[in-house]
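cache lookup: miss for this entity combination. No prior model stored, computing from scratch. Input as submitted by user K.M.:
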Amino acid sequence: MSVSTVTKDQFKSFVAALVDSDQKVVGVQAKDDKFAFGELTDADNLRLDYDVTILPPKKYMLPQKETLMSFKVGGAAQTVQPDEKMVLIGVHPYDMVAINQMDTLFSQGQYDTHYMNRRNNITIIACDVVTPSENVFASSMNTATCDSGFDILLTDIGDTFVVEAATEKGEALVKTINGAKNADAADTDKRKAVQDKNVASLNKHQLECKPSDLPDLLEKSYDHPVWEEKAEMCYSCGSCNQVCPTCYCFDVQDEVNWDLKTGSRCRSWDGCLLANFATVAGNHNFREKRADRFRHRLYRKGKYVPGKIGGQIACVGCGRCISACTTKIANPVEIYNTLMEKN
Amino acid sequence: MSKPRVAIFDFACCEGCQLQIVNLEEDILNLIDVVDVVEWREAMSEQSHEYDIAIIEGSITREEDAKRLEVIRSRAKILIALGACATMGGLNKLKNNFDDLNEVRECVYGKDGQMPHLNTFKTKACDEVVKVDFKIHGCPIDASEFAQILRSLLVGKTPFVPDYPVCVECKANENICRYEYGEVCLGPIIRAGCGAPCPAAGRECYGCRGMVDNPNVEAAQEVMDKYNLTVHDLKQKLVLFNSK
């Protein structure tokens, strides 16, 4: 597929035209002194120089709460299928890697039509990182750049974006950018320089092993004292789960309408740190202790989920959990490094 | 099948939670389609001693109130505590922080404080007096949560009430954590279900829904150090809704 360049002004005009079209356009915008993905109503509000968003873009594939089906009490049920199309602008490589992992998870085994319908209706314009966030460690996780999943990848090389169209959808969109021209060797060299820099420098925390070593490390760390030590300070608030681009667990609840005859089945985000995450019928809780829940998250990221997705580590180094944890105990790098010291 | 009979009563409170039910507006019509409201002082004149569901707003602060609540309990199949005063004593428990209630009476009512109708004891939540079947949390309650809980009960389903902290809803709404602004927020130990409107509006959580079942208060105390706050700051915040 093609690689071209557009000036930032030309790109802004392209976004403005998208915003004016019938298409729903979502992009990264400022929210107080942070950033968040939100519906774009003005191209001027798009901030591709952002560091990290409060929530990852997974909320567009797996919303905080969504209706799965409507039903009649004791009768038939009707699946509610999402069908909204959107263009999602500004996905960083680490989040792109997370989306790719989620795509695999939601399409293998029981194909999740709700997630996949949303995903297939989204055109992703990813962008290489311009401003590293305070806790990013994507370099440690090999996720500072990405090579698939997006329709278009933007790289900021100064006054210009290098624009790689990776799919037919992406190619068609790039054709609508007025002024786009084929990238020359100098442009692609500059792009490579940006990406090479990110590969080395998105690393506020250094994992002292290869990500691929984590499953074996965890294999022998189940009874390590770090779980108890850290969990003493755990609120079980699930903030680390909520902001994580690779946490995808959900709870399902039925809600009944005022007629008491019809209702809807909804799913909403759950989190393995929450006290009742593993509570089952009969009120038995498989992970009643904070330390058990605390350990579980790190095992999910470093061992259990990798077992489902060909060994890929399900932590992409975005650093959001580190920032979101009020008691500052959630840093996966710190924990994995501690396990290495004592093993 | 006849519709369940519902009665709504108030004790020591501001009646704001009942007002939230009134604020259901057009949904009030849906409500009276599925239940017979047989007593509700704030909204109607009729009274009744026969009801299936009693909804109680307010805390219990006098001997005669405790007796009245016991009578209501004996008549109702299901008793629901409505709002912070009923579920945990709420603001009214502020006075429990004083050893001498005469001092409180004098402070509030001056020389009239000794009049007999102002006889008072330490504030109790409803469940400190009678068995409570369900609690609808908050100050005030959220009308849509009230409606959801009531509808669940009417179809025989256990209502869903979160046992996780407010942080869950703050994160879901992308609210910026109040600790980042150096404020003492009770969110990490307080039960969610409100949708975190206070942090969304730029204010910390005051704890009006009460603590989660197993709050990590020790962690909360250590967090104060990290943010250059003190345990005193934390206790000052907790006293408002979570006094014993």
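stored under new cache key. The CA atoms of residues 148 and 166 of chain A lie 8 Å apart.
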